[in-house]
Write a structure and sequence with these properties.
With about 140 residues, the chain is mainly α. It has one domain (about 5-135): Up-down Bundle (Four Helix Bundle (Hemerythrin (Met), subunit A)). Helices cover about 80% and strands about 0% of the residues. It has five helices and no strands. It has helices spanning about 5-30, 45-60, 65-75, 80-100, 105-135. The protein is elongated.
């Protein structure tokens, strides 16, 4: 299995993992009789609120790397994405973990750095796909 395929499924599985974590965080409130639901997790507070935001963030940014990875795999160009695929997956997972653990200034800077790494890789992939298509 190529690094691109591992990354694609890793991003999907990570999003599912965060959904399950969120369901667990919300279950104790629902079982306790709290039937109020806020999309941002404000009704939960603390770590559960950060889990809510990390899960939403993971889904919000799933489409771009997934589309690029699928494009590369479908067109037999996964060599373009293979080299940095694990960087994207690792950065996404670490970003979510930092998001859940802390909202300190340092944590925000780390999250921003991890997100920037992902965006830079997406730009590199996009440019390389464009360059490859221009040569055809």
């Amino acid at each position: 299995m190529s690094a691109s395929i591992i990354c694609l499924f890793g991003l999907i599985i990570w999003s599912i993992t965060l959904i399950l974590l969120l369901l667990g965080a919300r279950a104790k409130y629902f079982l306790g009789g709290q039937l109020v639901f806020d999309q941002q997790g404000i009704d939960l507070g603390g770590t559960s609120q950060r889990i809510t935001r990390a899960q939403a963030n993971s889904l919000e940014w799933l489409v771009i790397p997934s589309a690029l990875l699928i494009y590369g795999i479908a067109n037999g160009q996964s060599e373009i994405t293979d080299g940095l695929a694990m960087v994207v997956l690792g950065s996404r997972i670490l970003q979510s973990i930092v998001h859940i653990v802390s909202v300190s200034l340092l944590a925000i800077l780390v999250r921003a750095t991890l997100f920037t790494i992902q965006v830079v890789v997406w730009v590199i992939w996009s440019y390389e796909f464009y360059s490859a298509a221009a040569l055809v």
